[in-house]
Amino acid sequence: MNALAKEVAARTERLAAASVEGLYQDPFWFARYGEARARRFGSEDAVFHVRYLVQALETRDAGVMERYARWLRGLLVPRGMCSRHIATHFQGLRAALVHEGLTSPPQAVEYMHAAEQALQWTEGPALALERALERLVSRTVRELSAHGVSLAGLEDEVRLQFSYLADALGTGRSGLFVDHVRWYAGFWPLRGGGATTARCCGHWRHHWPVMPPWRKCRGSPWPWG
Length: 225
Description:
mainly alpha
């Protein structure tokens, strides 16, 4: 094992803990999975991320992290997450590596960046959406603001929804987005929206009963769900 891989491996628990430190400021995680479940499996996932990074560093192959990122998306997107959530996890680990001074040589942070990039869709309508993303986000934020939607971090919220949509397009499973909207209608007021957003959510709940799209599959190899 090379020196950097050894350093990262030796700090696995500390890096994993630091990478999810700010994650639960987002009410999504506790609302979606429950606090105990979110904390437990979020921490376990973080350790897996570090272990795969160590493997990539041992083999000097960023492709290990790229393949892991795509594999992880295939497991977690059907369980109620989106590519943007996974990228946020990776960004947290990259920040932890920087904080620990594990930036020279730079392979650890570079491989984490490669993992984030691997979550971008490369073909079909999902690619078309991602290419138009900045324009779509800008227009959506303007439209929502014009209709009185008041929410801190509105642009980030819009990007999150487009990530869910891109994943549904990329996987060819439109039901993933439908299930997400059904659940999110009940969660939306927790985001801190004003009266207008609350009325919108009431409208959606009237038409689409809230159902958890992340019911655990029997025999699932992954704990989320």
